[in-house]
Write a structure and sequence with these properties.
Blueprint lengths: L12 H15 L5 E5 L2 E5 L13 E2 H5 L1
Antiparallel strand pairs: 1-2, 2-3
């Protein structure tokens, strides 16, 4: 897969991301959108971007340790 390529098919994903972010903030929850990049899972709970190569995604394994 090319760097930065997205598999997203949901045109409302950014709205959903922001709604989940506000809900989690209100109820003090841990959350994040999980996507795969070259068969490895990454989580993002900061700023939504279509670009999958952004710095705001971290390996899910790092969060679950």
């Amino acid at each position: 897969m090319q760097a930065g390529h997205t598999k997203n098919i949901d045109r409302q994903v950014e709205n959903k991301f922001n709604a989940f972010k506000e809900y989690a903030k209100k109820y003090n929850l841990h959350w994040g959108f999980v996507r795969d990049i070259d068969e490895e899972l990454y989580i993002n709970n900061t700023i939504y971007t279509e670009d999958m190569s952004g710095d705001n995604r971290i390996p899910l394994d790092d969060v679950l340790k």
